[in-house]
Every structure is written in C-alpha cells, then in structure tokens.
Amino acid sequence: MVSGQSLTLINRVIYLVSYFQIIGGQALKDGDLPWLVHLYIVHDGQISYCTGSVVSPNYILTAKHCAIFSSLEFILISYGSANRKNMVSQTSAITFTPNSTTLGVLGTSIEFTGNVNPICLSRNLRPKIGDKAIVAGFGLNFQGVNNGAKNPGDEVNPTDMITDLPDDLYAVKVDITEDDLCTCHCDKPEDSLGIKNVTEMCAGGLLEGTLGGDSGGPLMILDQNSKQWFQVGITSRGQTYATNNTSEVVDHGVYTDISKFCDWIETTTNKEVICYP
C-alpha cells in the first residue's frame, strides 16, 4: 500500500486539481503525487517521452506504445521530484507487455522516501460513469488553438494547438463518461481511436484531459475508506475537440482499465506487485 500519505497532502492535491489542468494550469510540488515518473525513450533513431507510475521498488507501469518499437535502445526512467530537472534517473531496456499495458523493470531498486512512493492497484476499484478521477503527466501543456477559429465540435489535431513542454508535473480532475463519447468523429472513420473493448474506459471533458507526453500516466481515485490513492487506469489515447473559445477545448480520453490486467501484473512480477481487493 502507499505509505506516507497525510491528510494534508491528500487535501492539497484535491484542491490543486480542482482548479488547474494539464491543459494549461499550475504545477504540482514535490511529494504531491510521488509515484509519477518521466520516461525518456530512445528508439529507432528517435526520442519519445511518456509518463508512468511506480508500483513497487523494481517495477514501473506505463502504456504499451511507450515501450514497443522496432528497435528500443533504452528507457531513461526519472523519479523523485515533480520537476524533471530535479529527478533521479536510471535506465532500463527490459519490459513486459501484453495488450495495452507495459511493466518496466528497474535495474536498481528504488528506495522510497516522501518524494518517491508506489501507488496502490486494485482488482475492484473501477470508477463509474459520473465519478471523478485524477490524471497526471509530464506532457505538453495546452495554451490555445491556432490556425484560425474552428467550429465547435471540430477535431483539433496536435498541429492545431499552441502548446509548451514544462519541466513540472501537472494534474487535472476528469469525469468518467460514457464510452460513446470516446468514439472519434474523425474525417476518416478508420482513424477512430474510440473504446475497443471492456479493458478500456472513457474520461474527460471541457479543459479536462491529456496531451502528448502524458501517455502511460496514471488515472487515479482516492479511496474514501482507506484514504489511499489507487491507480485505476493508464492514459492510452484520445481526441480533442474545439469549442467557440480558442482558449478552451474538450478532450475525450481512452484509459486502460488496470483491474483487467491484475492477474498478469501479479504473475509477471512474482507478486512483488499486488492488486488489492
């Protein structure tokens, strides 16, 4: 279970994400979400960025597309701070991946402190439609829509956005929504990135969502009984839509349901990582 989560810290994070978003907003501080990691991925002669989460001293959890490449050279895993410039790093080239989930194996065990700690997993804590969850990442920050005004409901591609890449960790509260909202109304139906099966869920809304670099990050809820944070999903993909205000967009994101992979996680880690009931 996650240790060292004081009620003061829990209340601070809930307060922050009630007002600030990954899509524009204010950074979190060291220790706010101490399981977040930044991934610097060298592959196929390119560099990519993702987010992940610490789930034990030797394993991190992220998305499949953050680790599956024709030629993966290594992944630099950074942790221990809410600012990328202040993080501790180590490399890993060993990953285990089924379907939409990847476990990265750390070369050196993490020593837990107030600034780096694992998040809990659960077999049964799947949020319902209308519930609130929190998503966080080290990805791009939305600043506005460029290339002229778009009609409300039009798809907004990454090239249509004004973004920056902050060093800090950002988080946002998102609504769990109907799966139909994650069906992409794309120009080409074959480009649809909607819900594929029961291992996924949909979340987001107005100024509620993720961008490039947030992939692999955790979708989290606070269990009211134990006052512990649980990761219930992994940021996978999504679609962003215009409003009548170029400083606002609507995001509908697809998240992998971790509870559907608990058996695989426990078996792969030899039960170093446990999904609680």
From TrEMBL:
<dbReference type="Pfam" id="PF00089">
    <property type="entry name" value="Trypsin"/>
</dbReference>
<dbReference type="GO" id="GO:0006508">
    <property type="term" value="P:proteolysis"/>
</dbReference>
<dbReference type="InterPro" id="IPR043504">
    <property type="entry name" value="Peptidase_S1_PA_chymotrypsin"/>
</dbReference>
<keyword id="KW-1015">Disulfide bond</keyword>
<dbReference type="InterPro" id="IPR001254">
    <property type="entry name" value="Trypsin_dom"/>
</dbReference>
<dbReference type="InterPro" id="IPR001314">
    <property type="entry name" value="Peptidase_S1A"/>
</dbReference>
<dbReference type="InterPro" id="IPR009003">
    <property type="entry name" value="Peptidase_S1_PA"/>
</dbReference>
<protein>
    <submittedName>
        <fullName>Peptidase S1 domain-containing protein</fullName>
    </submittedName>
</protein>
<feature type="domain" description="Peptidase S1">
    <location>
        <begin position="22"/>
        <end position="270"/>
    </location>
</feature>
<dbReference type="InterPro" id="IPR033116">
    <property type="entry name" value="TRYPSIN_SER"/>
</dbReference>
<dbReference type="GO" id="GO:0004252">
    <property type="term" value="F:serine-type endopeptidase activity"/>
</dbReference>
